[in-house]
């Protein structure tokens, strides 16, 4: 996001507050995603997804890890539900694996898959935990990829069909729906850089995927409004808080590198979803890759659907500047570098490393970026409530006895909760905050080497151990205030 120039400042307060209270109806909870935790990859009729294929491909995932077993959540559902209740979660954001519902991505429904999510949802409701269901967190059924995946317009229609099946079966018990999680990653890491499944490296394909993901969202919102008119409907985006070469907040209007990356990373979604159509500068910047002829008449109207809130995932900021073309191009864009480009049409931009401190992902810790982002979104879209659907950090945790003293994660969370609170004090309509993640899990291209959980998982025994951060989050929820 670009932010107003008057916000430029080097005086960064440290955001280490305590005692700040959140309103009683502010939803506090945690998030996960199907492929990252469920395991049971072939159980009860589940079909293969692009992440099964990608993980099984040598060299794609650190240590050759796969989600075959993950943290075995599929078989440990009751135990994990009890854990959520023990922490006092008010909301739990999970995703539904499309290949459990339709093993080939279209056609017959697999009742056993629906039944699993039915048990999860009933278990949440029985414990007074609000279910927030994401329809797509990246596990596209492999047969759909074989037919072109998100570069094929038909995938958007298949998604709407899948949304209808799920909403008809589970809709009466789920108050909040999210269509897509981070379509930027699906499109640009999946089809551009190749860091994510399906691992394609084609800029034109990535931009085509952007549009078909946006279309899929619009079609699914229409279905959800029809089938579950009482439910809240949203989408979750991963905003790139783009800073200039000095690492300062920048106004995209007068900074070419910021403008270009903001267009690809943020406005390729916010513009069609919230304003209508694609930004002209995005179309110009990418003209060498595509003429955007995959956008058909009427698509803009389908994509721009009223939303009940916007889901915001935030982890860190990003620094950009125009590349001089001679020195080695800095590539610290926060995403795994596997050779391909996630920035079609803007390979003349480079990504210098930022100032620390860093998490174990190498991501810089910048709570001020979250405050800026929330203020910026709320000033641009004043009538659209926001919810932080993911925020958290990976650190190299150690189990000591039966404890995990993850002081750095507690500090990270404290600073980001403070940032969120500050934004709310300045008028941002923020409805909730979900920590990523409930459990340590399969961190995509990094496999099990990066731990994001507030609950530690021993991958040999599947034993769950509360980290200090889980206790801290539990206290935060109980008091509805940032603990001492
Ligand atoms: C987000 C993803 C989530 C998790 C976190 C660390 O991009 O939505 O699944 O991997 O990053």
Characterise the protein shown here.
- There is one protein chain.
- The chain has 484 residues and is of the alpha/beta class.
- It has 15 helices and 14 strands.
- It has helices at residues 34-37, 50-55, 77-87, 98-101, 111-126, 142-146, 154-170, 183-193, 203-227, 256-275, 280-285, 299-303, 367-380, 407-425, 468-479; strands spanning 27-31, 91-95, 130-136, 176-181, 232-238, 241-243, 309-313, 317-319, 321-322, 349-350, 386-390, 430-436, 455-457, 464-466.
- α7 (154-170) packs parallel to α9, α13 packs parallel to α14 (407-425) and α14 packs parallel to α15 (468-479).
- The protein is globular, with a radius of gyration of 21 Å.
- The two termini are 32 Å apart.
- The model is unreliable at 1-12 (pLDDT under 50).
- The protein binds beta-D-fucopyranose.
């Amino acid at each position: 996001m670009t932010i107003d120039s008057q916000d430029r400042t080097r005086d960064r307060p440290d955001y280490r507050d305590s005692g700040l209270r959140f309103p009683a109806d502010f939803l506090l909870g945690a998030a996960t995603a199907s492929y990252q935790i469920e395991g049971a990859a072939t159980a009860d009729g589940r079909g293969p997804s692009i992440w099964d294929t990608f993980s099984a491909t040598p060299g794609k995932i650190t240590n050759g890890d796969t989600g075959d077993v993950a943290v075995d959540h599929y078989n440990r559902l009751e135990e994990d539900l009890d854990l959520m209740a023990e922490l006092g979660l008010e909301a739990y954001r999970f995703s539904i694996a499309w290949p459990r519902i339709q093993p080939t991505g279209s056609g017959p429904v697999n009742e056993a898959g629906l039944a699993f999510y039915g048990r999860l949802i009933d278990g949440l409701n029985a414990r007074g935990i609000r279910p927030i269901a994401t329809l797509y967190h990246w596990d596209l059924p492999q047969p759909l990829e074989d037919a072109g995946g998100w570069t094929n317009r038909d995938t958007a229609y298949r998604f709407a069909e899948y949304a209808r099946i799920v909403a008809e079966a589970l809709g009466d018990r789920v108050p909040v729906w999210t269509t897509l999680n981070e379509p930027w990653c699906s499109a640009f890491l999946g089809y551009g850089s190749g860091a994510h499944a399906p691992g394609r490296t084609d800029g034109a394909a990535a931009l085509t995927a952007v549009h078909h993901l946006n279309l899929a969202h619009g079609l699914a919102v229409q279905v959800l409004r029809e089938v579950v008119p009482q439910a809240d409907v949203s989408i979750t985006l991963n905003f790139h808080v783009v800073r200039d070469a000095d690492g300062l907040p920048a106004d995209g209007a007068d900074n070419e590198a910021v403008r270009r990356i903001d267009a690809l990373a943020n406005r390729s979604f916010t513009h069609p979803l919230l304003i209508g159509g694609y930004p002209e500068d995005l179309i110009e910047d990418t003209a060498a890759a595509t003429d955007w002829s995959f956008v058909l008449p009427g698509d803009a109207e389908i994509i721009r659907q009223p939303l009940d809130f916007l889901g915001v995932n935030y982890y860190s900021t990003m620094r950009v500047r125009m590349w001089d073309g001679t020195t080695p191009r800095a590539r610290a864009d926060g995403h795994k570098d596997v050779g391909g480009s996630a920035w079609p049409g803007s390979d003349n931009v480079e990504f210098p490393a930022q100032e620390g401190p860093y998490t174990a992902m190498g991501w810089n810790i910048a709570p001020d970026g979250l405050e800026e982002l929330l203020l910026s979104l709320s000033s641009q879209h004043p009538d659209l409530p926001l919810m932080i659907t993911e925020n958290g950090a990976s650190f190299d945790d150690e189990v000591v006895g039966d404890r995990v003293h993850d002081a750095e994660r507690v500090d990270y969370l404290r600073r980001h909760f403070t940032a969120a609170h500050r934004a709310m004090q300045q008028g941002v309509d923020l409805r909730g905050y979900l920590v990523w993640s409930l459990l340590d899990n399969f961190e995509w291209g990094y496999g099990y080497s990066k731990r994001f959980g507030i609950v530690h998982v021993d991958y040999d025994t599947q034993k769950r151990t509360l980290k200090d951060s889980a206790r801290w989050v539990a206290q935060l929820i109980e008091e509805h205030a940032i603990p001492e």
